[in-house]
Fold this sequence. Notes:
Blueprint: H1 12-25, E1 43-48, H2 54-65, E2 69-74, H3 86-94, E3 100-105, H4 110-117, E4 122-128, H5 134-150, E5 159-163, H6 170-181, E6 185-189, H7 198-201, E7 209-212, H8 215-219, E8 224-227, H9 243-250, H10 254-260, E9 265-267, H11 280-283, H12 290-310, H13 315-319
Parallel strand pairs: 1-2, 1-3, 3-4, 5-6, 5-8, 6-7, 8-9
Helix pairs in contact: 1-5, 1-12, 2-12, 5-6, 5-12
Bound molecules: phosphoric acid mono(formamide)ester.
Phosphoric acid mono(formamide)ester binds next to helix 2.
Amino acid sequence: MKHLLGIEDLSKExxxxxxxxxxxxxxxxxxxxxKVPSLRxxxxxxxxxxxxxxxxxxxxxAAKRLSAxxxxxxxxxxxxxxxxxxxxxxxxxxxxxxxxxxVRHKDSGSAKFLAKYLRxxxxxxxxxxxxxxxxxxxxxxxSLKQYFASQGRGLFGLKVAIVGDVxxxxxxxxxxxxxxxxxxxxxxxxxxxxVPREFAMxxxxxxxxxxxxxxxxxxxxVDVVLCLRMQLExxxxxxxxxxxxYSREFCxxxxxxxxxxxxxxxxxxxxVNRGVEISGELVDSPRSLVxxxxxxxxxxxxxVLFGLSTQGADRKEEKS
Length: 320
Ligand code: CP
C-alpha cells in the first residue's frame, strides 16, 4: 500500500489488518512516555486546505508519538492564497522530501489526483469533499470493535444506521463501504433529499443497504447509530425546509434510542451540532462512543502512518 486514498481501495483483509494494527497502538498513548522510535527520521506534512480540529491534531500527535518530524500547512497560511495551484503546492512540498503528505481538501478526488502526480511521497486522504474520509471509518470501526468485544460480540453481523446528511458526507461513504466489506447491514436514514436512492441500487455496494426516510423505522432494532452533521458548507441549496424542521424529524435523542434500539451504541464523527442532528444529552450519555472515537483517532493514524512508512516491516520489532 503506497497511499491510503479510500476504504474503497482496501480489501476486507487489509481493512481488518489496519484496525488490528491500530488496536495495538492504543497502549502507546496510555504510557507515561507516549513515544516510540518507529518513524525516527521520517517527515510527515499535514496539508490541510479545509478546517479541521480532530483529524489534523490527531495526525500530528500520531506522527509525534512515532517520533516523526511533522509540519502543518493550512490554506490561509499557504501560497494557495496567492494563486498557487494545489498540484504546484504539493510538488513544492515534495521537493523537500517528505515521506507522507496528509491531505484534506474541499474537492472530491483531490487526494487521488495528488497521488497520481507525486512521484515519491505517499498520500493519505484526510477527507476529500464529499468522497471519502478513510481514517474516520477506521477509527469508527475500531471503536465498535472494542465496544462489541466488551459485549462478547465481534465486528460482524451488525445492523448499522447512518442517520442524517448522507449525501454530503464523506464519513457516510467511507463507513458504508467499510461495513459492507465487513458483511454488515447498513441503513441510510434521512430526508429523501439527503439520502440518495442510487446508493441502494449501486451494484458496487451490494444488497446490504436499506433506505428509510422515517427515523423511528430506520432505528428499529439496530446495533449502531452513526449520526451525521448537517454539512451546510457543502450544501449549495435548500435540502430541508429549515434546520428546525429537520431536527424535529431526525434529531437522534436518548428517548428515541431507548424506544427503538435500546441496546445500540451511538457514534458521531464530530464536530457535533447539539440539538440539530443529535441531542446534547445523547452525546454525553454512556451509550455515546464520541470521546472513544477521538482517542482512537490517534491510534488509527499511527497505524496508517506506520504502515505507509515501513511498507510491511515487522512493526512489533520496531515499535518498542
Ligand atoms: N471528524 C472530523 O473529520 O473532524 P474534523 O473536521 O475536526 O477533523
